[in-house]
Give the backbone structure.
Amino acid sequence: MNRTDRRSDARPERRRSPIPSTRSWGIGLAVVTACLSGVAIFTNGYAVQHFHGSAPFTTAKNLVAALAIGGLLIRLTVGHSEEGWTAPRTSGQRVGLVAVGVVGGSIPFLLFFEGLSRATSSNAAFIHKTLVVWVALLAVVLLRERLGWPHVVAIGALIAGQAILTDNLAEVGLGSGEMMILAATLLWSAEVVIAKTLLRELSPLTVGVSRMGIGAVVLVGWLAATGQLSALLGYSLGQWGWILLTGLLLTGYVATWFSALARAQAVDVTAVLVLGAVVTAMLNGLVRGVPVRPDLGGLALLLGAVLVVVLVPSRRAGAAA
């Protein structure tokens, strides 16, 4: 056996992913992400009632997600799957992974949940759902994604649908809470662009574990700096149950989200993500008895807009994916 043979034996060929790298699969994964998002928002509404202070709860939840995604990544890497760890080869990729962890996995979580404690939930939901607008603007400028008029109309319908679903839209202002939520939304839109660039060379779980792992380190550091670290040690078994549940939902969200983003345009998967509002509304109706009928117009607009995005891909959708 020559040296070349020994080297090839030492590095087994990676197994291809069972999920094809096509736009249709990317859209399908985005639908799964939206469903997980809708369930997570509904579940977090119950979970936060059992905690004092949003930062320790957010940190604990993100730690669970970081560990779960890390475990999945290790398993796939050991199994020589192409979905496993992809080592960054350039300084730009390494900086990008750190940026995803800071810009996406830590600071915006702190801003969002602190803002949520100061603003109404309806205001927060509306501001956060403008994510598709900011992603579209950044994707056109920085990622060279090209949008046709159907996409522009669909994005307008998404915002209109959210406006209909928002109670007292006329009262949506820009107080300190709303400004924090807007800042978090802008940071998450920047993360989408950074992640989309990284996903051209790195696996989705590599980006995902960097987001949650580095983000968790930053969040723990924040707790230590603000004297809240001891709160993690004082949680009851019931509270850890909520942390585990919401952390696993976040795990599924991150894994499917980056897998979708690797296969389809950033603006497309972000638009599909708005379907999470429909899922949350349905759960509120089924479990909490919140009447859905007044929201039917807004929900119909959301569904119609997402359908347009799915059925009318832009001319560069294939290239972007």
